[in-house]
Specification:
single chain; 388 residues; alpha/beta; Aspartate Aminotransferase, domain 1; Aspartate Aminotransferase, domain 2; 3-stranded antiparallel sheet; 13 helices; 12 strands
Length: 388
């Protein structure tokens, strides 16, 4: 059988083998602690669960919804985007419901890139964005960041990476994998640069609600003059604990979303209707749920940071948002080998930093989204033992 060469050239992230081995060890009775996956352990809003349970008895819920999503949900999401993200959009033409943010981002890039086009990704990057571009025959171009600068891309570094083949810029803010939260002035300068160079901007705001500062990050689509250049991807996998339901949305220019809908129709058609019904019921209580979620995650972040510093592991930037902490490993060159050794000897699962592209080598990503605070202390203890 002959395979697509672009797909063959796309590397699978190390989120298969390490968890598989962890499962084997757990079945043997080993106390394995997983801080690898970007998941939360806070249950979804009760309104979501109750509405889905009721909806399953309705024959219509087992049918397709319209490709762009239930009209009443699109209207509710437009209100949500305006109130929570500051992004104004027409629910009829400028917003569609997607099967999670990942599917939406894939469809956006498929609609926008040609083979050999270049797209800028601040690096370390979210590997699914790089995988998408590679599988489409496009080129993910790293924009280097550093821990010394808080893992934030500078406008100069972005400008230096632009070539005649550059078509777009992807921003993940708050960031996966680094936990960085870009300041408003930086976001404004990056987007203004993109508009000036006629680039599109994909704003992945999966972690928008999970920020630990006084104010949420600035949404690129709210910047004057940027509206026609920006598409916003939203998700409820983390903020409402709905990862398994695959529910997200895209808000952006109508002409772009017209093309995205072609891709959605020939891939997933629509997000699962029962999930859409549940999300519609849950959105009115989203703010209270998100506040509780954020408080829980902030406590875990603080505990993890305190434990790492107490153990003498201070080569990290305190996360300003998301679920992640990106830890440099002093004296460790091969982070993949370290992760395998950490699992076999200390029974902790993390993600090697090299999975996140250039600049990630010699690091690991830890997720505190689904690990109680006392277990985070144990994670740090085991990592320190593995390093020494």
């Amino acid at each position: 059988m002959r395979f697509n060469s672009n797909v063959l050239g796309t590397a699978m992230p190390p989120l298969v083998e390490l968890p598989r081995r962890a499962g084997e060890l757990a079945e043997q009775g080993v106390d394995v602690i997983r801080v690898d996956q970007g998941a939360v352990d806070v249950p979804p809003p009760r309104a979501f669960v109750e509405r889905v349970a009721d909806a399953l008895r309705d024959p219509n819920v087992h049918r397709y919804s319209p490709d762009p999503g239930l009209p009443e949900l699109r209207s509710a999401l437009a209100r949500y985007a305006a109130q929570r993200l500051g992004v104004e959009c027409d629910p009829e033409r400028e917003l569609i419901v997607t099967a999670g943010a990942n599917q939406g981002c894939f469809a956006v890039m498929m609609a926008l890139v040609e083979p050999d086009d270049e797209v800028l990704l601040p690096s370390p990057w979210y590997f699914n964005h790089a995988m998408t571009l590679t599988s489409l025959g496009a080129v993910p171009v790293p924009v280097p960041t550093s821990g010394e600068e808080g893992f934030t891309p500078t406008p100069d570094a972005v400008a230096a990476a632009i070539t005649p083949r550059t078509r777009g810029l992807v921003l993940v803010n708050p960031n996966n994998p680094t936990g960085a939260c870009y300041g408003d002035d930086l976001v404004r300068r990056l987007v203004e640069l993109a508009v000036e160079r006629d680039l599109w901007v994909l704003s992945d705001q999966t972690y928008h609600e999970l920020h630990y500062g006084a104010e949420p990050p600035l949404s690129p689509a709210t910047i004057p003059g940027a509206r026609d250049h920006v598409v916003t991807a939203g998700s409820f996998s983390k903020s409402l604990g709905l990862a398994g339901w695959r529910l997200g949305f895209l808000a952006g220019p109508a002409d772009l979303l017209d093309e995205v809908l072609k891709i959605q129709d020939c891939s997933v058609i629509c997000a699962a209707r029962a999930g859409q019904e549940g999300l519609l019921a849950a959105l009115p209580e989203a703010e209270q749920h998100i506040t509780r979620m954020r408080d829980t995650l902030r406590d875990r972040r603080d505990r993890l940071v305190t434990s790492l510093r107490a153990a003498g592991l201070e080569t990290f930037v305190e996360p300003g948002g998301s679920l992640f902490l990106f830890l440099r490993l002093p004296g460790v060159a091969d982070d993949m080998a370290f992760c395998h050794r950490l699992l076999e000897e200390q029974h902790v699962v993390v993600v090697p930093g090299s999975a996140f592209g250039p600049g990630g080598e010699g690091s690991i990503r830890l997720s505190f989204g689904a690990t109680p605070t006392d277990r985070l202390d144990e994670v740090v203890h085991r990592i320190a033992d593995a390093i020494t």
